[in-house]
TrEMBL record:
<feature type="repeat" description="PPR">
    <location>
        <begin position="413"/>
        <end position="447"/>
    </location>
</feature>
<dbReference type="Pfam" id="PF13041">
    <property type="entry name" value="PPR_2"/>
</dbReference>
<feature type="repeat" description="PPR">
    <location>
        <begin position="483"/>
        <end position="517"/>
    </location>
</feature>
<dbReference type="InterPro" id="IPR050872">
    <property type="entry name" value="PPR_P_subfamily"/>
</dbReference>
<feature type="repeat" description="PPR">
    <location>
        <begin position="747"/>
        <end position="781"/>
    </location>
</feature>
<dbReference type="Pfam" id="PF01535">
    <property type="entry name" value="PPR"/>
</dbReference>
<dbReference type="InterPro" id="IPR002885">
    <property type="entry name" value="PPR_rpt"/>
</dbReference>
<feature type="repeat" description="PPR">
    <location>
        <begin position="623"/>
        <end position="657"/>
    </location>
</feature>
<feature type="repeat" description="PPR">
    <location>
        <begin position="588"/>
        <end position="622"/>
    </location>
</feature>
<comment type="similarity">
    <text>Belongs to the PPR family. P subfamily.</text>
</comment>
<feature type="repeat" description="PPR">
    <location>
        <begin position="518"/>
        <end position="552"/>
    </location>
</feature>
<feature type="repeat" description="PPR">
    <location>
        <begin position="308"/>
        <end position="342"/>
    </location>
</feature>
<dbReference type="InterPro" id="IPR011990">
    <property type="entry name" value="TPR-like_helical_dom_sf"/>
</dbReference>
<feature type="repeat" description="PPR">
    <location>
        <begin position="202"/>
        <end position="236"/>
    </location>
</feature>
<feature type="repeat" description="PPR">
    <location>
        <begin position="553"/>
        <end position="587"/>
    </location>
</feature>
<feature type="repeat" description="PPR">
    <location>
        <begin position="852"/>
        <end position="886"/>
    </location>
</feature>
<feature type="repeat" description="PPR">
    <location>
        <begin position="782"/>
        <end position="816"/>
    </location>
</feature>
């Protein structure tokens, strides 16, 4: 994005000419998401340069008062620029002392570019001995490949000076620096330079070359340097053999690594802890865990080696990855007992393992232990915790960890943001995920394909397909190519919304984009056509994918079986189920479940049990979904005894009810007039850790109402969809009493579900009473309640009340959804309350939303779709004056929308 300056008022007129001019103006800019990020100047100001010169001209510069003032302003780049100036009066000894003084300051870390001008000063003043030490420091300061390349180029140039030619020590240090980044081609050139300078390599030289190639698994090239060792009259040592163990393991030939390991004692080379670590790591990577543990156990007996922190960490990490986390924890305890202190990496792999086991409290406790021990968690440590909490749906806790991370000066990386974005999208809070995209850009982090794919998926899941397509264009604008995951998500999203023709168009366009239509895309498309009751076309697609060499998987068969069942074609569905094994696809439990459910809907219990028995004979254990299908069928038929028999079978099989199963049980007892039994099930539901859904509460309220408490109608006349239209508030009070009597008093989720039900029917008064009661019980109102209240107020054109609820949300730290703002702002404009609309928009801009999404959902989907062109212009100008940045494609979309509206 670029930083836009405000255009002359008014921004848009109802004139094609002004739009055309603006479009030409916009097209003159080279847009990209990152183009707006300013590049900080690396040049020092002349005043600092002069102040430094004045300071260092003073013999007692270390005691000069200006030194403390200058230090905070200095950076390695400023120092490099200063030393590069031709200061004829600058004493080289003072320049060196000043450089060394700054190097000792923790906040000042000289980089490779800082050393270069210092070396030039020292050499021009013939201070060769001290220059040699400085040269070694320069080489060791390299922290990136680019810095290593710079050092090689600089030192090669300096090597022309006869008095300052690279010696063996310098060459070896340079090779070691390049080896850190596995820059073998550059190492080969430096090695050749060494030979050309008549410098005789030593064993350290050869071992450095061997180790670099072995890191790449290139043992063939490494063996060439073994021959050079022998030609030089030297002998391979422990380091040589240990590198080859690493090399063989890197090329996934652990047996050859083992062979080298066994030969070492025969060659008179003692194996050390690194030898063991390389082989243990190779065995772990090959999933030969038991062999790795045996090797670990014999370290002390065979070679007198003590495992170090890396040994333990390798094993703990491997055990965690193999889901043997109990053993990993045991090894962690043993490690500490033997006096081997875990490091940051050890804690990180264990925290990651605990998070994958959903043991988040234990993982968090380990983070606290790290802090107590003075260990600074890395970005990987924090990422493991953030990912763990996000996957459990506890995104707010993950966000708190993110804030802790930043306060501890641990800089989040792209993966950190991706995990949070994934968490927000999973909990259907894509507006918060989009806001994180802006924070990434502010941090100068480039979003990845994964970032955009997660956001596209999030928008699709919330039904915002148009915004998903806008993200696709934003992705391309940022130089990223949408992949099969991106398009697969869009196809799935379109099919979910019944827009199958558009999904067909995407599939047809992929070939020219060089993207192969995969099984997931075909499956989504087949499912979409089945949902649209176009089963014949779905079958044609199924045959087409086979013809194109794309093999259907179990999921593909399942969606087609489901589509056939929905069309009453159970026989064809059964035949397709039979074809699965013949096609090399094993039917899943879902394959059978779909057919069983459809048969039960038709009360074909005998046929359903035949399929059930077939499923069991195929080695499948019935799951909760299948048992629930039988429960529904029996309750629908009023067969309570048979339903209770199914429940008994579930218990015998060790199958625990899930949320849906509990709801079905509640409904079943309610239909039989056994309300107390229904509430007993509700209590069991709470005890099992399930929060009742909105539908669960709807079922309970329906049966309470049918008990004659507020409706004098036949029970059969009350449809579950109409519950919230007819239920009285007093029935809810009865619900609360019943819940309390059965040991499961109403909680935040209860009030939220009930308030949402009333709001959907426009019953704001009852919803408000629930909100008041909730707050009087000491419970904090949640985002969902406020969102429903705002939307309900807007539906009733009670915009002042909607604005009040939005303000309350912001006061409580709850970020409202953009949909709520759209309804409110558009409603205020419709009512002619322009000032309030603009004031609300100003408040919105301070909330940290993604600016593009604000423009998409409020300006384009809100105002322009309502034909409010002037209001769109007004708010866009506010965004400009507020410093909001928009992408080029968003501006283009605005222009296209204005042009269409203007021409109507």
């Amino acid at each position: 994005m670029i930083q836009w300056t405000a255009l002359p008022t008014p921004l848009f007129r109802s004139s094609g000419q002004s739009i055309s001019l603006l479009f030409s103006f916009i097209k003159s800019f080279p847009f990209s998401i990152t183009s707006s990020i300013p590049v900080e100047s690396q040049e020092p100001s002349s005043s600092i340069d002069q102040q430094l010169l004045n300071l260092l001209s003073n013999p007692n510069w270390q005691k000069h008062p200006s030194l403390k003032i200058l230090i905070p302003s200095l950076s390695p780049s400023l120092l490099s620029s200063f030393l590069s100036q031709n200061h004829s009066n600058l004493n080289p000894h003072i320049a060196l002392s000043f450089f060394n003084f700054l190097s000792r300051i923790p906040s000042f870390k000289p980089n490779v570019h800082s050393y270069a001008p210092l070396l030039r000063i020292l050499i021009s003043n013939k201070l060769f001995q001290v220059a040699q030490k400085t040269r070694l420091s320069m080489i060791k300061s390299c922290e990136t490949r680019d810095e290593a390349v710079f050092a090689v180029g600089f030192l090669r140039n300096m090597n022309r000076c006869d008095e300052f030619k690279l010696n063996l020590w310098a060459y070896n240090t340079l090779l070691m620096s390049l080896s850190r980044f596995v820059m073998t081609e550059e190492m080969k050139c430096v090695y050749d330079d060494m030979l050309n300078d008549m410098i005789k390599p030593d064993i350290y030289t050869f071992n450095t070359m061997i180790n670099a190639y072995c890191k790449l698994g290139n043992v063939v090239e490494a063996e060439l340097y073994v021959s050079k060792i022998l030609q030089a009259g030297l002998s391979p040592d422990t380091h040589t053999y240990t590198s080859f163990i690493l090399g063989h393991c890197r090329r996934k030939d652990v047996d050859s690594g083992f062979k080298v390991f066994r030969e070492m004692p025969k060659k008179g080379c003692r194996r050390n802890v690194v030898s063991y670590n390389n082989l243990i790591h190779g065995l772990c990577e090959a999933r030969r865990m038991d062999e790795a543990m045996r090797l670990f156990s014999g370290m002390g007996d065979d070679d007198g080696c003590c495992p170090n922190v890396r040994t333990y960490t390798i094993l703990i990490d491997a055990l965690c990855r193999l889901d043997r986390r109990a053993e990993a924890l045991s090894l962690f305890g043993e490690m500490k007992e033997k006096g081997c202190e875990p490091n940051v990496h050890t804690y990180t792999v264990l925290i990651d393992g605990l998070c994958k086991d959903s043991k988040l409290d234990e993982a968090r406790a380990l983070l606290d232990v790290m802090s107590e021990k003075g260990l600074v968690p890395s970005v990987v440590t924090y990422n493991a915790l953030i990912d763990g909490y996000c996957k459990k749906g506890l995104v707010d806790v993950a966000l708190a960890i993110f804030d802790t991370m930043e306060s501890n000066n641990c800089i989040p990386n792209v993966r950190t943001y991706n995990e949070l974005i994934s968490g927000f999208c999973r909990t259907k809070k894509v507006h918060k995920a989009m806001a994180l995209l802006d924070r990434m850009l502010e941090r100068k982090l480039s979003p990845s394909n994964v970032t955009f794919n997660l956001l596209v998926h999030g928008q699709c899941k919330e039904g915002e397909i148009d915004s998903a397509f806008r993200l696709l264009r934003l992705m391309e604008e940022n130089g990223l190519a949408p992949d099969d995951w991106t398009y697969g998500t869009l196809v799935d999203g379109l099919c979910e919304r019944g827009r199958v023709e558009e999904a067909n168009t995407i599939i047809s366009s992929l070939k020219e984009k060089g993207i192969k239509v995969n099984v997931a895309m075909y499956t989504a498309l087949i499912d979409g056509h089945c949902r649209a009751e176009k089963v014949v076309f779905a079958l044609a697609l199924f045959n087409k994918m086979i013809e194109e060499g794309c093999s259907p998987n179990a999921c593909t068969y399942n969606v087609l079986i489901n589509g056939l069942c929905k069309q009453g074609k159970q026989l064809e569905a059964a035949q397709l189920l039979k074809r699965m094994p013949e096609s090399g696809v094993k039917p899943t439990i879902e394959s059978y479940s779909i057919l069983i459910e459809q048969l039960l809907k038709e009360c074909a219990f005998d046929h359903a049990y035949k399929v059930f028995n077939l499923m069991v004979s195929m080695g499948h254990k019935p799951d909760v979904c299948i048992y629930t299908s039988f429960l529904v069928a029996y309750y629908n038929e009023g067969k309570l005894k048979e339903a209770e028999d199914v429940m008994a079978k579930m218990a015998e099989a060790g199958v625990r009810p899930d949320l849906m199963a509990y709801t079905v049980l509640i409904d079943g007892y309610g239909r039989s007039g056994l309300l107390n039994r229904a509430f007993d099930v509700l209590k069991c539901m709470f005890d099992a850790g399930y929060e009742p859904s909105h539908y669960t509460y709807s079922v309970l309220i329906k049966h309470l109402a049918q008990g004659g408490l507020d409706l004098k109608t036949e029970a059969s006349s009350i449809n579950i969809a109409d519950v919230w239209k007819v239920v009285k508030y007093e029935t809810l009070l009865n619900l609360f009493d019943k819940m309390g009597e059965h040991g499961c008093p109403p909680n935040t989720n209860t009030f939220s579900s009930l308030a949402i039900g009333f709001c959907r029917e426009g019953r704001l008064e009852e919803a408000s009473r629930l909100l008041d009661r909730m707050q009087s019980c000491g419970m904090s109102s949640c985002e969902d309640i406020y969102t429903s209240m705002v939307n309900c107020c807007c539906k009733l054109r009670m915009y002042e009340d909607a604005a009040r609820f939005l303000d309350t949300m912001l006061t409580q730290g709850i970020l409202p959804r953009l949909e709520s703002y759209k309804l409110l702002i558009c409603g205020l404009y419709d009512d002619g309350n322009n000032d309030k609309a603009k004031a609300t928009f100003f408040r919105l801009l301070d909330c940290g939303y993604n600016n593009d999404e604000v423009a998409w959902k409020l300006l384009i989907d809100g105002l322009l779709k309502r034909g409010l062109v002037d209001r769109c212009s007004e708010l866009l100008e506010i965004m400009e004056k507020n410093g909001s940045r928009l992408s080029s494609q968003t501006y283009t979309l605005l222009l296209e929308g204005l042009d269409r509206t203007d021409n109507k």
